[in-house]
Design brief:
Blueprint lengths: L6 H17 L4 H13 L7 H17 L6 H14 L27 H16 L20 H8 L9
């Protein structure tokens, strides 16, 4: 039986790890462990190292393109885009009678390389005003439908006991 995480969920989770690292006092590994534990309740095992490696490379890329203090904003724009739109630009249907965007995939379609490639392309689109930015003050709390357990995972505080 296949039960793999969709790439967009892995990418958003990695971006949330980077976002949390920049905007809290938690370590990147602690945040990645939180996401790993939460994702593993719904999909086949995703190691926290995969999430933290992807988040670290996202942060390195943002540093390379000199976004400075706007890094958190760019991560938020990326997350908004991935939640609301598919890679081809069409709107993601967050609720439906028969399918959910959170449904597992039949094969592995995520990883550091692929997620970083999508991240870089999305950030370039945002930076060049080709890709829609998130509305001011947008958070995942503003999403009303279809992704409840993922929203709960994002909003769950980091448990420092998960590090042991």
């Amino acid at each position: 039986m296949s039960n793999f995480c969709p790439e967009w969920i892995f990418g958003c989770s990695s971006a949330y790890c980077a976002h949390g690292f920049l905007s809290s006092e938690n370590s990147l590994n602690a945040i990645a462990r939180k996401f790993s534990i939460g994702l593993n309740q719904n999909y086949k095992e995703i190691k926290f190292e995969e999430l933290s490696d992807t988040a670290e490379q996202m942060l390195q890329f943002l540093s390379e393109i000199n976004v400075g203090e706007e890094a958190v904003d760019y991560l938020n724009h990326y997350i908004f885009k991935r939640i609301h739109f598919q890679n081809n630009g069409s709107e993601r249907k967050l609720s439906g009678m028969f399918a959910s965007p959170l449904n597992p995939e039949k094969s592995i379609d995520y990883g550091v390389k692929k997620s970083l490639k999508v991240f870089r392309a999305t950030i370039f689109g945002i930076k060049n005003n080709v890709t829609e930015k998130s509305p001011p003050g947008w958070t995942i709390s503003d999403v009303d439908e279809g992704i409840k357990w993922f929203k709960d995972l994002v909003e769950k505080p980091v448990d420092l006991l998960d590090n042991f």
